[in-house]
Amino acid sequence: MVALKYDYPIVNFEVIWGIQRLVDEYGIELHDPTWDLVLTVIELTITHIETSAHTNYKSKISSNLHETISKVEKLIERGQFNGCVGRVYDLIERCAPGRPEGSVLRLVSYLSSSMVPTHATWLDKIRMLVEKYFRNETRTSIRIRVLDILSDIIRTNRAIYEEDLMERVVVPHLQHVDSDSDPAVRNAAAQLLIDLCMDCESKRCLELLDILDKILNRPFELDHGPFVSEAEVPDIRTVIVGLIQIFRVKLYQLPSSHAIKAYKLLVNYLEAHYKKPSVFDNVSILRYMIFECFLQIRANSHYHLGFPEAVTTGSTLSGTSDNVAALSLSPSSTTTSPPPTKLRFSPYLAVDHRHGEKPPGPGSSPPPVSGSTSATSSTSTSSPAPSSGTSTSSGSHLAHHPSCTITHLSLTHACKAVIVCLKQEKDWKVLNLILQEVPQVMQNKALILSRDGVNDVDSLASTLCLMAMRGLLAYPKLSVTLLVLVFHALNFMVMCSLQ
């Protein structure tokens, strides 16, 4: 022991080599006092490697050290280690940069087991874990594992400690994840942020959506691409799928600002794409998913927005034209009948045709988590909403309830994105979706026709006429595989729906 405290590389090499043989041959038979001495020798060896000025034998000493630690870990896994497990992981933590990935993964799992609210410094431990093994680590599997651990901790403790976890851990360590060079890590971080947004009812949700916005716009800002397939941008796909899910779920919840924010991010992505189409030109599935979501939006006679939802087996479709309708999610399908659906409308979010979206006034405040909500766009005072689990019907108008502030959302930008798509889109799958779905959308007059006579039907009609005149010559990628008759049939079908 005394000799190990001095900078004698040969002595350290001989000692750690002897310890390795001892653990290898008699590890099962050793008991706590002996293990205490063995771990002390390992600790002194780590100190020697960290502080020694001699490079001779250092690599051999380090190799024997890690082999010895690995043998100790195997004993722990088999339940044959009779020493202090916590001390072993303390030593592994000291030399974690040189340990194999599997060893560090076991380490972070062990460290996370003590991160519970009953420990006074549990938040600091979580912060240090994320700092060391996510921000400062380079190995992908370890960083993703830390995000999984963080997700589990938040899911377990969010009822009481969500705000603290968001403020002290999530936002500080993930706010710049968009600049991370590892797409797998960005993808895992995006999924974590989406999961948090789905259940978050506080203003922190908007901060998380801002981080997702930066991930979504990263390829446009760095002029990356062109990407060949969605496999190259898993993080972007995850964000888009997540934002669609957030929009569809938060539409029926307060505060409405979360749904509006998700909607804006999706629209902004479409606008950015058609300004720089070369980046995602070959990844049409991303645009397809967004347009598919937007083209399913409907409005009832009170201009409340909603989506179709599948009807459970055995239920019947009944009710007024406002709240229940048989609707095909895939109108282009002729071989199989689509599952029956009904329309469910939001009690809190309505379409605004005239004013568009306005910033809050000087005296306004964001919508509360419960009760009434202040509009982040233009607002009007109406009925309080019935439970979000039921559809709004004309027979139970919201006027039965004395007060509820309804948030109004302008769909103008989404309509413009559809028109730009008809002008610029080169992928037939996306273009076909638009041409197939627009006639269905045009049947929903409350969504399309404004009470004030302001709408985008004229612009849509002009675009369709231009498409008819130019024909397939304007779409060189489509003219090879698409019949002229099919193209014009779909185009004229949309034009007829404008009448």
Describe the structure in your own words:
Keywords: Membrane, Transmembrane, Transmembrane helix. One of its GO terms (biological process) is regulation of cell cycle. It holds the Pfam family Tuberin. The chain is of the alpha+beta class. Among the domains are: about 5-100; about 300-360 and about 370-395 and about 400-410, no CATH class; about 425-495, no CATH class. Helices cover about 55% and strands about 5% of the residues. The chain is built from 19 helices and five strands. The protein has a five-stranded mixed beta sheet with strand order 1-2-3-5-4. The longest helix is centred in the first third of the chain and has 35 residues, at about 140-175.
Distance between the termini: 93 Å
Total strand segments: 5
Please tell me what the overall shape is.
elongated
* Largest sheet properties: 5 strands, mixed
Give the neighbour order of strands across the main sheet.
1-2-3-5-4
Radius of gyration: 30 Å
Number of helices: 19
- Helix amount, in percent? 55-70%
Order of helices and strands: HHHHHHHHHHHHHEEEEEHHHHHH
Strand content: 5-15%
Strand-pairing-aware structural class: alpha+beta
Mean pLDDT: 79
The low-pLDDT segments are: 314-335, 356-402
